[in-house]
TrEMBL record:
Top-rank lineage group of the source organism: Bacteria
Protein source organism: Allokutzneria oryzae
Pfam families: DUF5753, HTH_31
Residue ranges constituting the HTH cro/C1-type domain according to the UniProt record: 16-69
Protein name: Helix-turn-helix domain-containing protein
The organism's taxonomic lineage, starting at the top: Bacteria, Bacillati, Actinomycetota, Actinomycetes, Pseudonocardiales
Family annotation (CDD domains): HTH_XRE (cd00093)
InterPro entries per the UniProt record, alphabetical: Cro/C1-type_HTH, DUF5753, Lambda_DNA-bd_dom_sf
Length: 284
């Protein structure tokens, strides 16, 4: 998927489509009134096109949008094309990762499973530094690594902000809680951090115990993003050479099936803090 619509773009597109249909106009009708191709109109309505304020104003004029709705749409345009928290780090990020960060920043709920390390949204600074230091791929120098660490810290505002924080519902393989990334002291601090996070009403972390044997996470970690915009979900699977975005119904259904299986296998969320306390007792 080369160009994923963000939620704001999709909202703008949906409203414009509804206004066009309410006006009884086809794509051809609109194209005859403005210097747009029908393909461009379709891309705008599906959230795939870069939003240009002038274009949106022209379409609102054609559809005779009322003033209050016009203001609402133009506000959404400003949000869709406004600055992102990750833009200071943009030169260190490939386009596919920028796309993911845009989607994650507009999501209402993030679900998934992590198999080898805690999710970046849950990591302490020292733990994140150790994860980045363990990146054995070439081309990651100290400057880029420092920028990526600063990005991870900035990213965590999504779950820490006071207004509309991102909801998190994650499964984590038990091995992650035992793996001393950065050493025992760093792991202990990380476990304390997660223990505190699960007290937040919008954060749900469940441990998949080793004793269950094989489970759906063994096929690889994945993330499923949910949005307030109707009928919009995006699956994300990262691998060594890049990532995959999943939006087809059958793909999303499969991720949903894996999550339901994990729900049946994992400890309840209410047990997470206690289990972490037990593990810290083992660590000493």
């Amino acid at each position: 998927m080369t160009d994923t619509p963000t939620v704001r773009k999709r909202q703008v597109g949906r409203i414009l489509r509804e206004l066009r249909e309410r006006a009884g106009m086809t794509h051809d009708d609109v194209a005859g009134r403005i210097e747009f191709s029908t393909a461009k109109i379709s891309r705008i309505e599906s959230g795939q096109n870069k939003i240009v304020v002038r274009d949106v104003r022209d379409l609102l004029d054609i559809y005779g949008a009322p003033d209050d709705l016009r203001s609402q749409v133009l506000d959404l345009v400003g949000q869709a094309e406004g600055p992102r928290y990750w833009q200071p780090f943009e030169r260190h990020l490939p386009k596919v990762q920028r796309t993911y960060l845009s989607l994650e920043s507009e999501a209402s709920l993030l679900r998934g499973i992590d198999m080898y390390a805690f999710h970046p949204l849950l990591q302490t600074t020292d733990y994140a530094r150790a994860v980045l230091a363990a990146d054995w791929r070439g081309g990651v120098d100290d400057t880029r690594r420092a920028q990526l660490l600063a990005l991870r810290v900035a990213r965590q505002d999504l779950i820490g902000r006071a207004e509309n924080p991102l909801g998190v519902s994650l499964f984590v393989d038990e091995s992650v809680l035992r793996r001393p990334i950065g050493g025992v002291e760093v792991l202990r601090e990380q476990l304390h951090h997660v223990q505190a996070l699960v007290e937040s009403p919008h954060i749900d972390i469940r441990v998949v115990p080793t004793k269950v044997g094989l489970h759906p996470g063994m096929d690889g970690a994945f993330t499923l993003l949910h949005f307030d915009e109707p009928d919009m979900e995006v699956g994300y699977v990262q691998h060594r050479d890049g990532c995959l975005y999943l939006q087809r119904s059958r793909e999303l259904d499969e991720l949903g099936r894996r999550i339901r299986t994990l729900e049946a296998l994992a400890f309840p969320a209410s047990a997470t803090a206690g289990f972490i306390g037990y593990l810290m007792g083992e660590i000493g």
